[in-house]
C-alpha cells in the first residue's frame, strides 16, 4: 500500500492506494474533531463550492432541506419573518480557521425558492480565503454564541485524489 500525508495549519489529509489500485483520502481537522471525541460531528451543512457560490454576485446558496433542518429551527419568529419575506436577517459568522467574525445577511431568495447568504460573502470569504470551485466548506449554527461557525473542510487542490473518506466515515466522490 502506497501512502502519503499532507498537513496544513488546520487540516491533515492522508492519501493511500491499496493493492486493488483504489485511492482513499482521509481528512482530519486539527483541534476541531477526532475519532476519540465523543461529540457529534458539528458541520451540519457541507457544501462543495460552485461557480455561482464564488462569483461577484456575492451569494452562497444553501439547499432548502438543509436550511429547514439545520438553520430555521434556531431562529425566532421575527427573524424567521425577515428571512422568509426576502428582506433577510443579519447573522454573525465565525471563521473557525482564521478566528475572525464576519456579518452576512441570510434570506430566502424568492425567485428560486432557495436560501442564500449575501452581503460581504465574496469579500470576506471567497476572496479572503481564496476559495475555489471544488473546495468543501462546512457551516453550523452555534447556539451558545448565536452565530454560524464556518470552516474550510477540504481544499480541492490539497491532494489530487478522486475519493476521500470524511471524519464521519462517509465516502464522497
TrEMBL record:
Main subcellular localisation: nucleus
Keywords assigned by UniProt, alphabetized: DNA-binding, Nucleus, Transcription, Transcription regulation
Gene3D superfamilies (alphabetical): DNA-binding pseudobarrel domain (2.40.330.10)
Keyword GTP-binding attributed: no
Subcellular location, record wording: Nucleus
Highest taxon listed in the record's lineage: Eukaryota
Record GO cellular component, one term: nucleus
Molecular function terms from GO: DNA binding
Record-linked SUPFAM superfamilies: DNA-binding pseudobarrel domain
Protein name: TF-B3 domain-containing protein
Organism: Fagus sylvatica
Amino acid at each position: 500500500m502506497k501512502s502519503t500525508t499532507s498537513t496544513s495549519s488546520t487540516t491533515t489529509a492522508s492519501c493511500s492506494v491499496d493493492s486493488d489500485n483504489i485511492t482513499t483520502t482521509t481528512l482530519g481537522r486539527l483541534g476541531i474533531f477526532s475519532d476519540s471525541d465523543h461529540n457529534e460531528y458539528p458541520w451540519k451543512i457541507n457544501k462543495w463550492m460552485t461557480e455561482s457560490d464564488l462569483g461577484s454576485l456575492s451569494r452562497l446558496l444553501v439547499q432548502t432541506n438543509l436550511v429547514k433542518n439545520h438553520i430555521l429551527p434556531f431562529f425566532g419568529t421575527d427573524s424567521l419573518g425577515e428571512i422568509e419575506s426576502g428582506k433577510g436577517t443579519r447573522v454573525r459568522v465565525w471563521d473557525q480557521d482564521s478566528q475572525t467574525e464576519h456579518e452576512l445577511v441570510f434570506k430566502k431568495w424568492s425567485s428560486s425558492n432557495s436560501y442564500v447568504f449575501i452581503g460581504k460573502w465574496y469579500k470576506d470569504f471567497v476572496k479572503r480565503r481564496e476559495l475555489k470551485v471544488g473546495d468543501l466548506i462546512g457551516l453550523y449554527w452555534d447556539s451558545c454564541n448565536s452565530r454560524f461557525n464556518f470552516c474550510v473542510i477540504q481544499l480541492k487542490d490539497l491532494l489530487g485524489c478522486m475519493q476521500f473518506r470524511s471524519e464521519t466515515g462517509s465516502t464522497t466522490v
